[in-house]
Amino acid sequence: MTSKLGEIVSDLNGTNIQLDLFADNTRQQNVTYKNIKLYPDSCLNILPGLRSMTYQAVITSPPYCNRYDYTRTYALEHAMLGIQEHELSDLRQKMLSCTVENREKDLLNLNLGRASAVRSCEKNELLQSVITYLEYQKTVRKLNNNGIPRMVRGYFHEMACVIQECFRLLKNGGMIFMVNDNVRYAGAGVSVDLILSKIAEDTGFDIENILVLPNGKGNSSQQMGVHGQEILRKCVYVWRKPD
């Protein structure tokens, strides 16, 4: 406790404040950065334009299938960058479907090469059982938002397209490390880890591991009130493109 209070006092005194947010400390740390490029667009638009067999690894934590609207979560940061409301709305529709406000994307019209990714979803028994259950819950008015089945379907279809593109972009032997959470709707857990890993396997990846983090994630307070508490898996997927 004393040590932590000392850190707080030191921060308040300003003795350890870095005045330059983007200070170049690479010389002191013997670190060299090369060819770093940021692409200001959706991965659905950027990935198809990148060269095949180029990268050795992909490290990613995509949006989760949890109705989390990242455009609103980071609204303050967007405002500081001068992004207007209509630009936020456009960004929300471009990004991977993870909120009920996302409209369905015409994936095949945008890129005919995505047909195999869509087929992988359509033949995924676990995913189809989840969608069937959610559509039924919508019919009997048990969902708190009727857009959930569309969002879940869109999420996995779009993620299948991303996985397909990552397979194309990786060199043989290349790896994917992906962080993602399982979710729950209308009392039913959605095993995002198993569904995406099966899609990855169908795409050609070897599933090296699904690392389950020791502390899971609880479901929402609304669902706990009706369905009780259920700890959901938080995972890191490790996939490898064969040599």
TrEMBL record:
<comment type="similarity">
    <text>Belongs to the N(4)/N(6)-methyltransferase family. N(4) subfamily.</text>
</comment>
<protein>
    <recommendedName>
        <fullName>site-specific DNA-methyltransferase (cytosine-N(4)-specific)</fullName>
        <ecNumber>2.1.1.113</ecNumber>
    </recommendedName>
</protein>
<dbReference type="GO" id="GO:0009307">
    <property type="term" value="P:DNA restriction-modification system"/>
</dbReference>
<dbReference type="GO" id="GO:0032259">
    <property type="term" value="P:methylation"/>
</dbReference>
<dbReference type="GO" id="GO:0015667">
    <property type="term" value="F:site-specific DNA-methyltransferase (cytosine-N4-specific) activity"/>
</dbReference>
<dbReference type="InterPro" id="IPR029063">
    <property type="entry name" value="SAM-dependent_MTases_sf"/>
</dbReference>
<keyword id="KW-0949">S-adenosyl-L-methionine</keyword>
<dbReference type="InterPro" id="IPR017985">
    <property type="entry name" value="MeTrfase_CN4_CS"/>
</dbReference>
<dbReference type="GO" id="GO:0003677">
    <property type="term" value="F:DNA binding"/>
</dbReference>
<keyword id="KW-0680">Restriction system</keyword>
<keyword id="KW-0808">Transferase</keyword>
<keyword id="KW-0489">Methyltransferase</keyword>
